[in-house]
């Protein structure tokens, strides 16, 4: 699939480009990784698994990864942020059933692009992808320490703890060992 542009409806000065990993330039791949590192390094470093730069680079470059990259309409080099996702089969609490999920791996914005509706818009595009491809749900993982991110996904976008999230399927005592939760939202075709 080739690159596609989406016009950002709230502001006509932004464009969203769609890329497969294969379509992305090395410069874009490096920029996306550096944005994750800038925004998330401290949170990852304090997590149970820590920050593993090579593993994160590898994850971001798997052939199945897709990117929605926000940029200024007037300047393709003026990048604002991105959402990366994959279409996955995810486990459920029923051993015989796998869920089809559009899984958000990263939603990262530069500081000046935050609190303007761009993150919400990128997530809405992912929901449209999930609905179009008749996925069961949209999923993502969020660190418990990321209070702002947790509120954004649950209060603003309507995500809830997924059935396989530690906080949903384990006792409170066992769930405390995990520093993340898995959130999900059903697609409209359900």
Task: Describe, in plain words, how this protein is organized in 3D.
The chain is an alpha+beta fold. It has a single domain, classed as Aminopeptidase (3-Layer(aba) Sandwich), CATH 3.40.630. It is built from six helices and eight strands, in the order E-E-H-H-E-E-E-H-E-H-E-H-H-E. Strand 3 (66-72) and strand 4 form a beta hairpin. The relative contact order is 0.14. The mean pLDDT is 88. Its main location: cytoplasm.
Mean pLDDT: 88
Integer-rounded radius of gyration? 17 Å
Order of H and E elements:
EEHHEEEHEHEHHE
CATH fold description: Aminopeptidase
The largest sheet, given as strand count, sense and whether it forms a barrel, is: 8 strands, mixed
CATH class: Alpha Beta
Percent helix among the residues? Answer: 25-40%
Helix count? 6
Structural class: alpha+beta
What is the number of independent domains? 1
Strand content is 25-35%
CATH homology-level superfamily: Gcn5-related N-acetyltransferase (GNAT)
Number-wise, the strands total 8
The CATH architecture can be named as 3-Layer(aba) Sandwich
Catalytic activity: N-terminal L-seryl-[histone H2A] + acetyl-CoA = N-terminal N(alpha)-acetyl-L-seryl-[histone H2A] + CoA + H(+); N-terminal L-seryl-[histone H4] + acetyl-CoA = N-terminal N(alpha)-acetyl-L-seryl-[histone H4] + CoA + H(+)
Protein name: N-alpha-acetyltransferase 40
Keywords: Acyltransferase, Cytoplasm, Nucleus, Transferase
Family: Belongs to the acetyltransferase family. NAA40 subfamily.
